[in-house]
Task: structure prediction
Amino acid sequence: MTTVTQLPKRSITSAQLLTQLGLDHGLSIERCLQHTGLSPLQLAELQTEIDGSQELQLINNLIDALPEHIDLGLQAGLRYQLTTYGIWGYALLSSQTFRQAAELGLRYLDLTFVFNRITLHEDARHAHLDLDGSQLPDKLRDFLLLRDAVAVMVIQRELTAAKLPLSRVQLSMAAPADPARFIEQFGLLPEFGCELNRISFPRHLLDLPLPRANPHSAQLCELQCQALLAKRQVRSGLAGQIRDRLLSTPGRLADMELIADELNLSSRTLRRRLEAQGSSFRQLQEEVRQALAEELLAIESLSLEQIAERLGYSEVSNFLHAFKRWKGQTAGQYRQTLTSGPA
Result:
């Protein structure tokens, strides 16, 4: 049995897909769910939410039972259709361009089933999706890399109704004996044994219009994504204590050293305990700043400079950049919607 840390809640849908993968390879449902704390009856409940650690244990079980399947993560990734993700998937489908879908998808990545941290970068000619699994257990890292990377490719094909040409794929895993299935999924031979995991493609493809674009639906879906994410971000334990502490002094957000001292912990111990809950001090600060920013923008008498100062930003431009990343719109646009309502 692998010991895994407590992670945020997620839909049980992914556990259902992974269990079916095991069943298709001849495993019993009991073997798939061993040590997960899940029963077959719970697995059948569509609205159930589980801990990320339970899904990791399920994956551990599959790896232990099917060691000969080097591409097991790839097989898993093919099962994650856009509709698998619920409202998040519909929000992407309704987006106007591939860029808008990518930015929205990454903004609400916590509503998906990925365990890798995924970021989008651009240079003059290319866009790059980076997958960082450095925080994951070594034993599960290759499976999760393949599952999440292939799931990204499935999403791309469903969004654009085409298989977009990739420029380069870099993977940290060792090269398989037979790379045929990798070439089939990525359209080229990936580079293996790399220092990073990156999917690169021509930058101009980000501006492709999507065939099922519907701005009104996209707006409604994003509102539902916001509500669902807020519900899942309700925290307990140490992370909850710190979040409440940060919210209690909106004019002067405490730093990690101060809060660690208040809790009679070293900053190193505090960092380690937050990591064990699948969180970090920086993440909690971001959540609190976002929540406070939305409240402060509703106060029309406060300027953007004053709001930035209250949130602990030395420059208003840093606040404006962060807000655009959080909400997908400028602080001014968000303030306008508070007074005029949705368009």
